[in-house]
Amino acid sequence: MASERRGSEQRKTFGEIIAEARNKAGLTQRQLAARIRTEEGRGISGPYLNDIEHNLRHPPRGFLLQQFAKELDLDVDLLYFIAKQIPFDIDTSKVSDERAIAAYRAFRREMTSKGKKP
After folding, report:
1. Which helix (H) or strand (E) element contains residue 10?
2. Dihedral, 13, 17, 19, 24 alpha carbons, nearest 10
3. In sequence order, what DSSP letters do the residues of 10-56 get, joined into one string?
């Protein structure tokens, strides 16, 4: 998958963000994979991390996103945004239709507002 484009600027993919942060932290894929724990407490595999970094897999779900953010000192909200996911600590079954609509409208306003830096 190529990076998504918006106008003339280019947004990094989830995999590119993870790879860049891993390199900045001075970790190998194997080292980072051992630090990222599943809900069962096992480390993820090096090949799985490699696939994520090369955009051959979709971004992982909430629990692993939290782990990547923690281990790589990244903002978890940015990872959720790039992964196009709703944070796992938000229970959508308890959100009324009206609140969901209001939240998405506020989000859309913020993302489309003119004159603000992205």
Report:
1. strand 9-10
2. 160
3. EPPPHHHHHHHHHHHTT--HHHHHHHSB-TTSPBPPHHHHHHHHTTS
Of 20, 6, 14, 10, the C-alpha closest to 78 is 14
Q: Is the distance from CB of 55 to CB of 15 less than 8 angstroms?
A: yes
| Residues of the chain predicted below pLDDT 50 | 1-8
Chain position carrying tokens 């630090």: 35
Token digits of residue 37: 């724990």
- Whether residue 82 contacts residue 17, with contact meaning beta carbons closer than 8 Å, is answered with yes
For residues 7 and 47, what is the distance between their CA atoms, to the nearest angstrom? 34
Residue-level length of the chain:
118
Query: Which two three-digit tokens encode residue 3?
Result: 């990076």
DSSP structure class, residue 92? G
Do the beta carbons of residue 18 and residue 72 sit within 8 Å? yes
Q: What is the pLDDT of residue 31?
A: 96
94 DSSP assignment: G
Residue pair 89/112 in contact by the 8 Å Cβ criterion: no
- 36 Cα distance to chain centroid: 14
